Every structure is written in structure tokens, then in C-alpha cells.
Amino acid sequence: MFKKLLIINFFFLIFTLSYAEEQKIVYLNIEKIMQNSIAGKSIKKQLENLYNKNLDKFKKNDEILKNKEKKLISQKNILSQEDFQKELTNLRSEIIDFQKEQARSRENINKLRIDATSKLISRLSPILQEYAKKNSISLILQKKNIIMGKKEIEITDEILSITNNKIKDIKIN
Fold it and tell me: Within 13 Å, how many C-alpha atoms sit on residue 127's CB side?
């Protein structure tokens, strides 16, 4: 009985291994495509421009608030306690609004980054499907999920080249 079970397991293992050898599995470094493709660089540049524009605006507003604070401190002895507290409350309110605006701006940039990355991935998907069909590939894995693999089965550079030819730009909103 034990011998029959051992023989059945042996044949099952041989058939499974031969089936797995027929399947073509490759891997891809998505991060490299995001960073080095023309579209990925375009996204990065657009986000950096937006960030720098917001940074300049916030630096100006920060200077204005600092000047208001200095002016208020210099008028502390001149103003009545009541007027000083009123002005201080108004300044604190402006600072809180400023901080909220900064947070909204950061959230907006993060949302735009996520949306642009999603657009690039959705435009990359048909390229991968076509490549897999053309080259009889059964499975494409992300490199970050692989501990070790042969360099020969990495297709990142090929997909990067195809992506650069087909996707020139991704617009962020």
C-alpha cells in the first residue's frame, strides 16, 4: 500500500514539474519604469514644478505672517490689552488657516502623484499584455516580490523601451 502511494506521488511530481517547465515566467522592475521612462520623468517633473510653485507661495505667506507677528509684538505696549488679544487671536487664526492650506496642498500633490502613477500603470497594462502574448509568457511578476531570479528572465529594459516608444507623456490634473 505504501509503495503504491509512493509511486503515485512520484509520477504526480514528475508531471507537475514538466508542466511548470512549459510555463514561461518573467519578472519586471516597475519602479525602474516609473523612474526612467519618458512618461515617468514627465510626471516627476510636473509634480516638482507644482511643488516648487506652492513652496514659493507658502514662503511668501510665511514671511507675511512673520512680519505681522513682529509688528504685533512691537505694538504690545502701545495697544490696550483687549486690542492686543484681539489682534493676537486674528493672527493665530491666520496661522491656522495657513497651516491648513499647506496640508491641503501636500494632500493634493500626493493625490496627483497617485492618480498619475495609476494612469501610467493602466497605460502600461496593455503593453504588458501584448508583450506576454507575443512572447508566450504565462506570468509576469514584479521584481520587488522576488527574492532571487535569473537576470535572463528580467524584461524591464525591453518593456522600458516599448513604453518610451508608446507613452510619451502623462498629464497631471
Answer: 20
Distance, CA of 67 to chain centre: 37
Domain membership flag for residue 114: yes
Please say whether the dihedral angle defined by the alpha carbons of residues 27, 169, 114 and 98, taken in this order, is positive or negative. Answer: positive
**Structural domain total, the chain:** 1
| Residue 91 burial (10 A CB sphere; 0-12, 13-18, 19+) | middle
pLDDT in tens, 109-164: 999 999 999 999 999 999 999 998 998 888 888 888 878 877 888 898 999 999 99
Question: Are the CB atoms for 77 and 154 separated by under 8 Å?
Answer: no
The pTM assigned to this predicted structure is: 0.73
Tell whether 2 is covered by a domain.
no
- Classify residue 155: in a domain, yes or no: yes
Range of the domain at 47: 23-166
Domain assignment present for residue 18? The answer is no
Return the sign of the alpha-carbon dihedral for residues 146, 150, 151, 153. negative
The enclosing domain of 125 has a CATH number of 3.30.910.20
Contact 111, 67 (CB under 8 A): no
